[in-house]
């Protein structure tokens, strides 16, 4: 049995998702089909579907809410009649739910690929999808949560997203199976076709990419240390400390505690400069008293 992670190949995707997607559909015997992606940005940047509709003749629905990015997207796909661009921010329910947006298009109910990347609401949007059953779902997760933590950010909170375990539980409810993880995305295949892949079906723990996570550890006396550099917030300098000291509202959860990490390694550079400055200031102060 092969591990899909070994098929990573980056064309426009962030962490090699292009190669994994290509391998999945090759194993499923699907040369062409329909893909849906949102937020699609300009259609190219960090896209999980560009290779499909641009190079392989797939039909696509690309959804982007930002007006400027959508203008770039529309221009990019103008020569691809099989690509439908939609300007909209996707909600989990209501008129801008994914169901209602897809109703405006020709995409079939069981289209081939759904790529979800909206930095926070991903879980809630997929949960709200009722009328369509894509064969494969690629969805962003918060890789800073260890794989044993079941956490979902509030529906109106774009800061935290969802942990790998939480998305895996949702996938199970929706009758999908986890087949792979990259550092940013999880891959789920619908249960009725997953056996056709002939690949390893890992647990969340097995699929999780541990090289992308920062842990806070402590001494026996409670002094905090990082196991590596924080991936999203710099700890050096005033800006990094301020970003941590003024965090977004923390949702009610037994799994989260607010902590501020200050990296003082810059003192090694600053102290040799500060010592003579302090001596000079002291000397001037003494002269001023005479």
Explain what you see.
The chain is of the alpha/beta class and 290 residues long. The chain folds into two domains: 4-211, Rossmann fold (3-Layer(aba) Sandwich), CATH 3.40.50; 214-290, no CATH class. It is 30% helix and 15% strand. It is built from nine helices and nine strands. It has helices spanning 17-27, 50-55, 67-76, 98-103, 122-128, 164-173, 204-207, 237-245, 267-289, and strands spanning 34-38, 59-64, 83-87, 113-116, 136-140, 176-181, 185-190, 216-218, 224-226. The strands form two sheets. A seven-stranded mixed sheet has the order 3-2-1-4-5-7-6. Strands 8-9 form a two-stranded antiparallel ribbon. A hairpin with a 3-residue loop joins strand 6 (176-181) and strand 7. The mean pLDDT is 87.
Which consecutive residue ranges, at least 5 long each, have pLDDT under 50? none
Strand order of the largest sheet: 3-2-1-4-5-7-6
Give a count of the beta strands, DSSP E runs of length 2 or more: 9
N-to-C series of helices and strands: HEHEHEHEHEHEEHEEHH
Q: What structural class do the secondary elements suggest?
A: alpha/beta
Strand content: 5-15%
Overall outline: elongated
Radius of gyration: 24 Å
The quaternary organization reads as single chain
Second rung of CATH, namely the architecture of the largest domain: 3-Layer(aba) Sandwich
Query: Average pLDDT across residues?
Result: 87
Query: What is the total domain count?
Result: 2
CATH superfamily of the largest domain: Vaccinia Virus protein VP39
Determine and state the CATH class of the largest domain: Alpha Beta
How would a crystallographer describe the biggest sheet? Answer: 7 strands, mixed
Q: First CA to last CA: what distance?
A: 85 Å
In CATH, the topology of the largest domain is named Rossmann fold
**Helix segment tally:** 9
State the helical fraction: 25-40%
């Amino acid at each position: 049995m092969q591990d899909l992670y070994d098929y990573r190949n980056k064309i426009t995707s962030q962490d090699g998702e292009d190669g994994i997607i290509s391998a999945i559909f090759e194993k499923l015997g699907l040369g062409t089909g329909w893909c849906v992606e949102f937020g699609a940005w300009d259609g190219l940047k960090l896209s999980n579907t560009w290779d499909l509709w641009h190079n392989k003749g797939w039909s696509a629905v690309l959804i982007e809410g930002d007006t400027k990015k959508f203008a770039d997207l529309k221009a990019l796909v103008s020569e691809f009649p099989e690509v439908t661009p939609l300007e909209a921010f996707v909600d989990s329910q209501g008129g801008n739910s994914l169901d209602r947006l897809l109703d405006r298009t020709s995409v079939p109910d069981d289209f081939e690929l759904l790529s979800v990347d909206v930095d926070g609401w991903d879980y809630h949007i997929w949960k709200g999808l009722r009328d369509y059953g894509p064969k494969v779902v690629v969805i962003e997760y918060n890789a800073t949560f260890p794989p044993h933590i079941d956490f979902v950010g509030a529906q109106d909170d774009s800061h935290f997203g969802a942990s790998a375990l939480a998305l895996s539980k949702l996938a199970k409810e929706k009758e999908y199976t986890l087949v792979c993880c990259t550092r940013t995305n999880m891959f789920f295949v619908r249960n009725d076709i997953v056996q056709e892949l002939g690949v390893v079906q890992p647990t969340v723990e097995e699929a999780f990419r541990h090289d992308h996570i920062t842990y806070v550890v402590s001494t026996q006396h409670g002094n905090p240390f990082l196991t590596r550099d924080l991936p999203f917030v710099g700890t050096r300098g005033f800006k990094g400390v301020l970003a941590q000291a003024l965090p977004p509202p923390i949702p009610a959860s037994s799994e989260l505690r607010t902590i501020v990490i200050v990296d003082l390694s810059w003192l090694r550079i600053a102290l040799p400069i500060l010592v003579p400055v302090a001596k000079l200031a002291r000397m001037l102060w003494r002269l001023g008293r005479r």
